[in-house]
Amino acid sequence: MKTLLLAVVLLFVAGRSSRAEAGLEVAILGMPTAVFSFEPVPVLFEVKNVGHAPLLVPATADSETGAAILTAAPGRELRARNYASGLKLGRHAPPSMWLEPGERWLFLQDISIQFDVLEGSFDVVATFSSSGKCGTKLMGGRASLSLDQFAELLEPPSEGHADPVYGCWSGQVRSAASTVRVVRSTKTVDIDAETFLLANRQLESSSDGSSWQLGPRRDVVAKFPSSPFAYAVLARDATSVPSMVEAVRLQPGNPLNVWVNALIAQRVLDFRSTCWSGQKIDFDVSIDSLELAPGAREYLDQYAWNLESRICPLEREAEAEKRRRSQK
Q1: What distance in Å separates the CA atoms of residue 47 and residue 66, rounded to the nearest whole number?
Q2: Class of residue 298 by CB neighbours under 10 A (exposed 0-12, middle 13-18, buried 19+)
Q3: What angle do CA 290, 294, 298 make, to 5 degrees?
Q4: Whole-model pTM over 0.90
């Protein structure tokens, strides 16, 4: 058993995906198949137009529209637990986008928050859904259709809605299920780290013991730097580039590093974008030199393009409108 635990490796899945009648397909392109307790579980998946005509689809994500990740213990009902808003195309994404025939849009999301257990196996399914209403703007994606083509899709205001909306693809598609196994390490250093966290109330369970919560206890990193608990505390802090970089530096052999590097690069792209409104921070990170999981480089290229070609123009437009209103 110890040999098995020590040999946990990162594998990639490319399961057969479901195909919608209207031409959309969803497939999980890669994710870890085994992690230690609370380590990151990044999922890379695609939504692809496999039809012969452009499709208008939602670009945002909520509990009922756009991209989502469903999880469940084997044999249980799938559900979107702790739904992640990070699945949207950008921080302030437009409500809809065009997908040309053969075009795909990639998503990368760490769903480790959904596995609030110390051990167990879970099925993971990527989905994409739409009610057929795609808002009032058409700015997402790389494709741009003519105003006449846009006008053909515009529907009159309905009851309860003051503005017209664009009719779009409707339905739901799901990927094939992939499985991730959460392993509770039995190595001495990991048992000691777990005991330390329990004693400091930074690892606590629900009253019925069905779920657990790991706190951001940084001193566990200093005491047990080789433990998966230390890696989890650092690598799951997606708001902190230095924290994620430290996780990779502390455990250079961790197979999850190729995924954490992709999350690091995504965050650095945010900070370096022309519309970043927060504190300007120049991280010493060369995105081009990072070792990444297969498919992650394409995702980052798409993410960078979307930031500068779609998201930043929208944010600058919103800021200009705000200034115009303040001057009236």
Answers
A1: 10
A2: middle
A3: 80
A4: no
Within 8 A by CB and 6+ apart from 258, the residues are 10, 291, 292, 293, 296
* Rounded Cα–Cα distance for residues 131 and 65 (Å): 7
Structure tokens of 129?
Answer: 């859904």
Q: How far apart are CA 8 and CA 12, in angstroms?
A: 13
Instruction: Extract the tokens encoding 215.
Output: 């706190």
Per DSSP bridges, beta strands 120-133 and 154-155 are unpaired
pLDDT tens digits for range 87-119: 444 444 556 778 889 999 898 989 988 888 899
**Tokens 């498919």 identify what position?**
295
Query: Is the CB of residue 261 less than 8 Å from the CB of residue 290?
Result: yes
Q: What six digits make up the tokens of 37? A: 């307790």
Q: Residue 220 is encoded by which pair of tokens?
A: 């566990």
Closest-CA residue to 218 (of 234, 206, 235, 198): 234
152: its two tokens: 């053909």
Q: In the block, which residue shows the tokens 């799951």? A: 236
